[in-house]
Amino acid sequence: MSRTNSIVAIFIVVIIFVLQTGCMQQAGPTITFENTVLDFGHVRPGANNIGQFEFTNTGKELLQITDVERCCGVAAKLDKTKYEPGQSGVLTITYPSSNTPIAINRTVYVNSNDKKNPRLALTIKAEVVFDISWEPKTIKLSPEMENAGCPKITIESIDGEKLFSIRRLVSSGSCITADIDPSGQATKFVLQPKVDISRLAKFPRGSISINVVYAEAEAPSDTVAIAYSSVDRISLNPRSLYLFYLDPQKPITRTLKVTKNYGEDFDIDTISSKSGHVKVLSRRDIENGYQFELEIMPVPVDERGRFSDTLTITFQDGQKMEVFCRGILSVPDEDEEEGDIE
Predict the structure, then answer these.
(1) Residue 66: pLDDT above 50?
(2) What is the pTM of this model?
(3) Cis peptide leading into 238, omega within 30 of 0?
(4) Cα(296)–Cα(247) distance, rounded to whole angstroms?
(5) Host domain of residue 254
């Protein structure tokens, strides 16, 4: 066979292989979606949003969907899992809206025996919107200020026309309240919260929930959520002790301050050391609290010269607070000094 004939023969073999491969690819199942993005657009909070992805088996063999991977509050349902060539199906998506304004972008994966797309991604989008806006979104409180420095809360209709009522206001531990008229209707309300300082001491972090009902009978209600935070009832300074020491037999002294933040009287019942590394040398009264001088004996407990301990402070009312103490044997550089890092 001449060289020319050999080349022609090889070319023909390649063409046949390519054609056979193409036929084999076309012979399998193929899942084809009309759209791979389902956008609900603007949705109401708390609404049950239902949409569909339509698809067809455009291949030559039976399509079998083995799994639909759901995610983050999105539910997916198929009427069946097997589809003959040319047969269509529907994947139903259900997304329950959150009760807070948020834009969501979720992905659902469809797993099938389609060799080209064995794990096909579908996107679900939505934006939860309210008919009202409010300020502030978060509140920082300070027990030393009048009414803990709590600002007014303004709630108003976004379009300036939609009437609504405020039915109730509740907070964590009932530490924040406000005078409201559930029967009143307006496009704007300005509330002056009242802070119970004694309750705030027990619930220094939490949220305020305000139920809003619209004048339109068919309109669903909304819930305004405002997070608040305040300082703890009692502060420790420092909250943790980290030590680098040179001599494991030489004690180290440190100062611990325990102060009150809500103006109430308090006393300490006991201070105990879990591992025995820390003991109290002295205690004296300071403004709004106490100051302790601590002695820490850094006895290594492992091959790296590390030790740990927990100092537990128990107050007369039963409340407990902990100070974590950690240390490690260290040889500092010339410009380093032994000390603690807070």
Answers:
(1) yes
(2) 0.55
(3) yes
(4) 12
(5) 234-340
